[in-house]
Amino acid sequence: EADIYQTPRYLVIGTGKKITLECSQTMGHDKMYWYQQDPGMELHLIHYSYGVNSTEKGDLSSESTVSRIRTEHFPLTLESARPSHTSQYLCASSEGWDGGDTQYFGPGTRLTVL
Amino acid sequence: GQNIDQPTEMTATEGAIVQINCTYQTSGFNGLFWYQQHAGEAPTFLSYNVLDGLEEKGRFSSFLSRSKGYSYLLLKELQMKDSASYLCAVMDSNYQLIWGAGTKLIIKP
Fold first, then answer.
1. Nearest-CA residue of chain B relative to A42?
2. How many Å apart are CA A99 and CA A33, to the nearest integer?
3. Helix (H) and strand (E) counts for chain B?
4. Is residue A45 over pLDDT 80?
């Protein structure tokens, strides 16, 4: 069973606020990911990391930043939240092998920006 | 461009069998994944195929034809708890996952 945690689970915040979504995993996985998913839609990759001090942007530009100072921790920061950021944010991790590199997901953070 | 196509919604009866299809066009292929996602929850891994053929795991089986760019997920002896969205995802030549929008499966008693 995957051990990956996200906080908060739900967040309602006003426009212009700075927020950080937390993600931690206890499996020692090298690769970590942030996805954005709207209801009934596909997952869009926002950021990913191959390991400590490695961060890459995904296909979706969401005006967010990430950091990877420790293997187990991969926080996502929105500098200035906007209503268009309202969505479900999913964090995932994987061992980092090529090919059958299964991603395990956290429970998600449902963000609403008013 | 890269795309994954799945039916938006399917309905089946408890105890029956259902097949969910997935077709894909991607730049390169390094395997295909199926995930289950209950409403409001995170996706959970179901299966992985990289070679042609059928992989069986209990009530769930997944099939792949690389030449046709096609996969299906077969669910047998359907239970009410199988009501969920089923996501097809393909790992491309850069080892990034390309996701389909998912198929919402509704199980009726």
1. B101
2. 16
3. 0, 11
4. yes
Write the residue in B41, B95, B104 that is nearest to A101 by C-beta: B95
- Chain-chain contact of A106 with B104 (C-beta, under 8 angstroms): no
Asked if the Cβ–Cβ distance from A108 to B42 is below 8 Å, we say yes
Compute the nearest-CA separation of B30 from chain A (Å): 5
Closest Cα of chain A to B77: distance in Å? 24
pLDDT tens-digit map of A62-75: 689 999 999 999 99
Show Cβ contacts of residue A1 under 8 Å, excluding neighbours closer than 6 positions.
Answer: none
Would the CB atoms of A43 and B4 count as touching at under 8 Å?
Answer: no
Residue A112 pLDDT level (bands cut at 50, 70, 90):
very high
CB A78 within 8 A of CB A92: no
A60-84 b/e with 16+ CB inside 10 Å = b? Answer: eebebebebeebbebbbebeebeee
Residues 6+ apart with CB under 8 A from B81: none
